[in-house]
Amino acid sequence: DIQMTQSPSLLSASIGDRVTITCRASQGISTYLAWVQQKPGKAPKSLIYGASRLQSGVPSKFSGSGSGTDFTLTITYLQPEDFATYYCQQYDSYPHTFGQGTKLEIK
Amino acid sequence: QVRLQESGPGLVKPSETLSLTCTVSGGSISTYYWSWIRQPPGKGVEWIGYIHYSETPKYNPSLKSRVTMSVDTSRNQFSLTLTSLTGADTAVYYCAAGWGSHWGAPGSWGQGTLVTVSS
């Protein structure tokens, strides 16, 4: 299985900040990388697919980049509704696998 | 956008079989790739597998011998069956839909249903 490793696991930031979360795959996955956001008690919400493509309706404050093994999710101008847990997911190879998650909390 | 709703028992006994259904609205069952994904309480996310109405389903090898997925085009539903349950199968189970060339990144998720395995 491809292992997905996110860093950091916990990220403290303030309203208005810009933050970056990284995701590393244990082997190359081209750009078959997605990012999802999950708030407590809620279903995950898809943000990005294809490493950098925004899902419909997702604001442009979210952006993704990378290819191969190293990827990033950047969120600009943090607002209260952005504080959540973020997961990366690879869908290049079976089984599809998720990172362990990055919890973004208010500083 | 397609909408999904999971249904099934909230409590199942160890060694028994879990059956979950996902009802699809706002889209045709034959258009999308359907996934099941689960999340144990307080833990990470695990991909269970996917099915497309015209393809052989693909399952996570960690569950392969216990899992079956199927599609009911007449009811616009798809389902998950998981046998020989243990406490490790306690989780929130999500159904999800993907489409296009990046179908593996589900664009729509159901709200999830908590399944507890306990006697």
Would you write up a description of this structure?
The complex is a heterodimer of chains A (107) and B (119). The model of chain A has no long low-confidence stretch (mean pLDDT 97). In chain A, the strands form two sheets. In chain A, strands 2, 4, 5, 6, 9, 10 and 11 form a seven-stranded mixed beta sheet that branches. Chain A has a four-stranded antiparallel beta sheet with strand order 1-3-8-7, with no helix packed on it. Chain A is mainly beta. Chain A is 0% helix and 50% strand. Chain A is built from no helices and eleven strands. Chain B is an all-beta fold and 119 residues long. Helices cover 0% and strands 48% of the residues of chain B. In chain B, strand 4 (33-39) and strand 5 (46-51) form a beta hairpin. Chain B starts with a strand and ends with a strand. In chain B, the strands form two sheets. In chain B, strands 2, 4, 5, 6, 9, 10 and 11 form a seven-stranded mixed beta sheet that branches. The interface between A and B is medium-sized, with 24 and 25 residues.
Question: Nutshell version of this structure?
Answer:
With 107 residues, chain A is mostly beta strands. Chain A has strands spanning 4-7, 10-13, 19-25, 33-38, 45-49, 53-54, 62-67, 70-75, 85-90, 97-98, 102-106. Chain B contains no helices and 11 strands.
Helices, strands, pairings?
The complex is a heterodimer of chains A (107) and B (119).
Chain A: E1 4-7, E2 10-13, E3 19-25, E4 33-38, E5 45-49, E6 53-54, E7 62-67, E8 70-75, E9 85-90, E10 97-98, E11 102-106
Parallel strand pairs in A: 2-11
Antiparallel strand pairs in A: 1-3, 3-8, 4-5, 4-9, 5-6, 7-8, 9-10, 9-11
Chain B: E1 3-7, E2 11-12, E3 18-25, E4 33-39, E5 46-51, E6 58-59, E7 67-72, E8 77-82, E9 91-98, E10 108-109, E11 113-117
